[in-house]
Structures are given as C-alpha cells and as structure tokens.
Specification:
By secondary structure, the protein is α/β, with parallel strands linked by helices. 37% of the residues lie in helices and 14% in strands. Pfam families: Alkyl_sulf_dimr, Lactamase_B.
Length: 465
C-alpha cells in the first residue's frame, strides 16, 4: 500500500462515501445512535477512511502519520533536526511511523512533545531516537489523564476491552470511532520515555531546531492536555481535544468527570488562532483557514451547547434520564462530519455533566432509596401477573425488536428464583446483538457485542456484571 496520502479533507466536505449516508440519516445523529443495520455499517465503513494508513503532508515542514495505530503522530522538520508530537502506543507501531517519516526527513529528533498522557500517545517514544537524547516536553500535571482511583482498575480494564472491542472477532469488528480496530497492542508503553521539560501553567514559547513554536495548556479530554501552535506555519496540533467525531465527553470504560466547560473553552482558544491547518489527535488533518477555524469553532459551540442545555434542564428540575433523551446538538451543527457521534455521544455527555455537577442523586425523592433489585424484580413480576407472564413480556419484546425493553425485562427476570434464568440470558444476548447491529457509535457497538460474547460463553457471573 502507498503510505502517502496527498489530499486532505476539508471540514465542510463529506468523507468519501459518506455523503449518501448523511442523506439516509438526516436527523438521526442527534442523540440516540440507532439506525437500520445496513446504514450503521455504511456509516462505520465510511468513517474508516478517517484513519486510512499513510503520511499526510500538512504544510511544507509538518507531516502527520495516520492509521499506524489508534492515534496520530506528527513530525515537524526544522533546520538541523525534527520535532515529534505524540509517539503512538508502543515501539512497533512507532517504528513503522518513524520509517514512513524518513521519506521526508532523516534529520535527528531534537524534541518530543506529549499532548497528554493517554497511553496511545506516549508509548512509542524510544522508536524515534537515534544517538541524540531529545528533550521531552509535557505539562506540569502530566500523568493525571485518567483521574480515577486505581482501586477500580480491575473493572476498568474489563470495560476498556469491551469499549474498544479488543476481543471481538474479525467478523464482528468495525472500528473504534476515531481509530482502526485490530491494532497491535502487545508492546503497550514499552517505548515510553518520561518528560524532561515541564510546560508551566502559562504555557511556553520556544524555538527548537529553528522552528518557533508555542505550547498552550488546554484541559479537556484530560487535565494534563496541551496543544502545539506553529505561528509561522499557522499549523495547530490539537491533541485529543479535537478529532472528527462528536467528542468523548464521557468514556463508557469509566473515567472521572472530564470538565466539559474547560474542554469547550480550550477548543475556542484554538479557534481564536485562526489556523490554516488543524492536526487532530486521531483522524485526518483539516487544511485551509476557513475549514480548520470553522471546525474548531463548531466543535467548541457543540460542546458548550450540550453543557448549557444540560444545566438549564438541571435547574428546571429535570433528571439525567429525561435530559439524556431531550438534549440535542444545534440544528446547524448536527450533520457536520466532525460532529457525527461515532465516538462520543450526546446522551452520555449529558449524564456525565449531570453527575459531574451534582453527583448521582437526581433530586427526586423516589430515587433517594430505591428498591433492591431482587425486590423490584419480584414486584415487577407480580404486576405482570407472575413470573411466567413477565417472561412472556420479555420474549415478546425481543420478537418485536424492542431490544432495549427486552434487556431491561431480562434484568428483572434474572433475579427471580422461579424464573428460567438461562432463557433470560439468551434473550439478553440476542437483544444486545440486535442493538449492536443498529449502532453507528463504535464504543456502544463494541460494548454490546463484547458483553454478549461474555454472557454467551459463561465468562460473567449470574449477576451479569
């Protein structure tokens, strides 16, 4: 395969093959991410082109390697050396990208910049080194990306595998929303090199290998994020605060609250620079001042709109379940290619904002001390006319493809001592696969399928957690 990509996507144009999909899904990408199965597949397959493997020439001296692993790595060519921004997941993927970069420059690496501390951006640094030891830049808070107590690492690891579909078969895999599926993760972090220069809170302006650059702190997806601005080239390297998908304001693998307001403000700060090109942490760069600046402005507005709508709903006394179904992207933004909900979703963002601002309690006294699951299941069965009647309702929901209701009823039936728990398990597996087939949000789809496989193969306890 030719590893050079000679053209870039503009922000307003559709990805090749996606135009027809937008026509089919008008009004769909507004909250819930369920469409007809063939449409979901077409959308995900079209999104694949956002991480087609190759090196993109962003400007005369900036090159971005896309698709060599899940994230991007970039090379800035200077007078007597190069600067690497982000280093992929491990030495194997980073070595492949470094070799591809050598088509454009064989100068030594003078510096490495980490935009944040997620593993897919920092694990391959050693692969870019020669005889020289480069300076390695990161923020003062570098390492705080996850922000979740390590006590819950065991369940986070399980949920991570599900979200990214790491154990799905080739037939089940599509992609990860902003990254390809099936990446080689066996050498995770083995090439990581710790930072040697700290970027202060006020940012840093410096010259490396004759290249003027600015490092600006930009909390968003992580608290330790920064972006790189090249004032002469007018190129902005955004890290994971921007990519071509509605942002993952909450990750279903489990994360601490990502400050949504900070995220919106950080992207607005990028847009104010009016870059001629923006390089995302994942997916293809966007070139052209109008296209790049508009994309960043729209991104910031979309995040802020979801935040503002959620806060208004909270102050109107609405709970997270209601708001997750009510909050929508503004009409003029909802069909923009870089805001389709391939990775993050509006409903997940709404729930995260609610919990981040108020905690778990929705203010309704009914939910202050809800019934224990077994007790609720028993009362649901009594209301339905007995366990058999509730079971028939569960089967009917599956038969009519009311998959979410089938899941919820299965979760009641499983608690009943006189119920057919194996049947409930089978119904839940079938309903999960039914939902997955209709999902164009990659993490949702991967999670549904992964959980279904775990249930079917007996990897989960009877509690199904």
């Amino acid at each position: 395969m030719n590893t050079t990509i000679v053209s870039l996507f503009t922000a307003r144009s559709c990805i090749v093959g996606l135009t027809c999909v937008f026509a089919l899904t008008a009004g769909v990408a507004r909250g819930q991410t369920q469409v007809e199965p063939d449409t979901a597949l077409r959308m995900l397959n079209a999104q694949q082109q956002q991480f087609q493997r190759g090196v993109v020439k962003v400007s005369d001296n900036v090159f971005t390697a896309v698709g060599f692993h899940g994230a991007n790595t970039s090379m800035i060519v200077g007078t007597d050396g190069v600067i690497i921004v982000d280093t992929l997941f491990g030495p194997a993927s980073a070595s492949n990208a470094a070799e591809a970069f050598r088509q454009y420059s064989d100068k030594p690496v003078k510096a490495i910049i980490y935009t944040h501390s997620h593993g897919d951006h920092i694990g391959g640094a050693s692969a870019f080194l020669s005889d020289e030891q480069p300076d390695i830049y990161a923020t003062e808070t570098f390492g705080s990306a996850e922000g979740v107590n390590k006590a819950v690492d065991p369940v986070k690891q399980k949920r991570n595998v599900r979200q990214f579909g790491r154990k799905l078969s080739a037939a089940e895999s599509t992609n990860r929303g902003v990254a390809p599926a099936g990446t080689d993760d066996s050498d995770r972090g083995k090439g990581f090199l710790p930072p040697t220069i700290t970027v202060p809170a006020g940012g840093l302006k410096t010259t490396i290998a004759g290249v003027e650059l600015e490092l600006h702190l930009a909390p968003g997806e992580t608290d330790d994020a920064l972006f790189v601005w090249l004032p002469k080239e007018k190129v902005l390297l955004a890290g994971d605060n921007f990519y071509s998908s509605f942002p993952n304001l909450y990750a279903i693998r489990g994360t601490a609250y990502r400050d949504v307001l900070d995220w919106s403000e950080s992207v607005a700060k990028m847009a104010a620079l009016k870059p001629h090109a923006v390089v995302p942490g994942h997916t293809m760069p966007i070139r052209g001042q109008e296209a790049a600046t508009t994309a960043l402005k729209d991104y910031s507005e979309a995040i802020r709109s979801v935040y503002d709508q959620t806060v208004r709903g909270i102050n109107a006394g609405k709970g997270p379940d209601q708001l997750a179904h009510e909050v929508k992207l503004p009409e003029h933004l909802k069909d923009n290619p870089y805001l389709i909900q391939f990775y993050g979703t509006v409903p997940h963002a709404v729930r995260a904002i609610y919990c981040g601002l108020l905690g778990w309690y929705d203010g309704n006294p009914t939910t202050l001390n809800p019934l224990e699951p077994r007790t609720k299941a028993k009362k649901m069965a009594e209301l339905a006319g007995g366990t058999q009647a509730l079971t028939k309702q569960m089967e009917a929901a599956l038969a009519t493809q009311d998959y979410q209701w089938a899941l919820e009823l299965a979760d009641h039936v499983k608690w009943l001592p006189d119920a057919d728990r194996q049947l409930a398990r089978k119904v839940k597996v079938a309903a999960l696969r039914g939902l997955a087939a209709r999902e164009y949000n990659a993490p949702n789809r991967n999670y549904y399928l992964s959980y279904a496989n775990e249930l079917e193969t007996g990897q989960l306890s009877e509690l199904w957690f």
